[in-house]
Amino acid sequence: MAYDMTGLSVDLKQKWDRVVQRLRAELGEDLYSSWFARMELDDCGGGRLAVSVPTRFLKSWIESHYLARLHKTGETELGPLDQVQVRVRTRGPVPPRPASEAERRSETGPQTQTAPQAAPPSPGLDRTGAIDPSQNFDTFIVGGSNQLAHAAACRVADAAAGAPVSFNPLFIHAQAGLGKTHLLNAICHRIRDNRPDRKVMFLTAERFMYSFVLALRQRDTISFKDQFQSVDVLLIDDFQFLQGKTMQQEFCHAFNSLVDARRQVVVAADVPPAQLDAIELRMRSRLMGGLVVDIEGPDLDLRRRILDSRYAALRQRDPTLEIPDEVIEFIANRVTGSGRELEGALNRVLAYLQFNRSPITLDLAALVLRDMSANPDGTRIKIDDILKIIGRHFNVARTDLLSPRRARAVVVPRQIGMYIAKKMTSRSLPEIGRRFGGRDHSTVLHAVRKIEEQIKTDDRLAREVALLVRLVEQG
């Protein structure tokens, strides 16, 4: 059996690589990069999987939040597992004891201090290693739901060093996967490229807490505090995770000193400041004193453009990928959540395409994404649901569908809606007519027959009606 330089068999290494790819596809690039990018396989055998990470913080976080996911994903490639063990790697020289480190720093001064090799560094300026190179303003797709947050982030990124800011802090809140972290990364990229004289610090709340605890253990909180004094822009992500009275006080001190010195602070969280129940009232009040903007869920047009962008990027890497336009349209209509959910749905469709080596059709896409249905229990289809889906797909207001308007942009969607209502519900023609704005049964019959004839000769209309039927079936 062949072995690589780490002592693992080539076969085991290949299986682990497939586990890694599955984790990346299931979690998305953001979560994977944050928690699994530095994980390594140590050993696997006898029903036990052992992996290692460089810090205790990563070990604790993975065990608390992702151990079950790692166990389940590992079994798909490595076989049944009784135990999954996460270790902390101990490579390089053993770090000196904290007391001697503090003594040495007090003798030589801060200019000559060196961090222990086995411990991760405390937060530092221009932490470009924490910035995702793919998340910049060019790759951020702007729509009505995120336009204000994007404009505010651009204003922060383009400000000159030392220039007064019109709003401080900038607080961006949204549900997971809607682009908060992307905007923070984009600000860092823009400042690094266009304003290199501005000093930037980008941290998550967890990293802030971990670094402060590390400084306490090393008896060096002064150096930790000093790092914030020369910062021009401080960006804190996942602020809702900041816990503990001491931690909040420490952050409040850093926050106040920066804001009072007219330095920019940008905070991102899942909820607005008023709903940060774990944060002290004084800190919440300071956060509400700046500009608070939210990012809402993407509308249909934005979801289409997000999918088009992701698909184009995938096609650049692999030109052989082929997904029909109606499948992209189906995903955009079916998945109404975050960009991360859209990317996950696209990844699932692509995985089916690659693993089964068969073309993706609308029926297969509906099958692959069946558990993402808004109507998973198959409850009775309602005409109100049909009206909602027709209006959303054609961007026609419900009031127009029910009105006497005869414009083609309204008549065709209305007729398709009547056709689908006749085919997918048990309602009579007169009842369908009443639900479509008080029309008589002859109008409904005319619409049904007209659509039936047109889909026989118009492939585009046939695909569009098939897409709408799938959307109605899945809620």
Strand content: 5-15%
Give me the Rg, rounded: 28 Å
Taking the alpha carbons of the first and last residues, their distance comes to 52 Å
SSE order, as H and E?
A: HHEEHHEHHEHEHHEHEHEHHHHHHHHHH
Number of strands: 8
Spatial strand sequence of the major β-sheet: 5-6-7-4-8
Task: Provide an overview of this structure.
With 475 residues, the chain is of the alpha/beta class. It folds into 4 domains: 79 residues, GMP Synthetase, Chain A, domain 3, CATH 3.30.300.180; 176 residues, Rossmann fold; 73 residues, Helicase, Ruva Protein, domain 3, CATH 1.10.8.60; 91 residues, Orthogonal Bundle (Chromosomal Replication Initiator Protein Dnaa, Chain: A). 53% of the residues lie in helices and 9% in strands. It is built from 21 helices and 8 strands. The strands form 2 sheets. Strands 5-6-7-4-8 form a 5-stranded parallel beta sheet, with helices on both faces. Strand 6, helix 10 and strand 7 form a beta-alpha-beta unit.
SSE arrangement:
Elements: H1 10-27, H2 29-35, E1 40-45, E2 48-53, H3 56-65, H4 67-78, E3 83-88, H5 98-108, H6 147-158, E4 170-173, H7 180-194, E5 200-204, H8 205-217, H9 221-226, E6 233-237, H10 245-260, E7 264-269, H11 281-288, E8 291-294, H12 300-317, H13 325-334, H14 339-356, H15 362-368, H16 383-394, H17 398-402, H18 408-424, H19 429-435, H20 441-457, H21 459-473
Parallel strand pairs: 2-3, 4-7, 4-8, 5-6, 6-7
Antiparallel strand pairs: 1-2
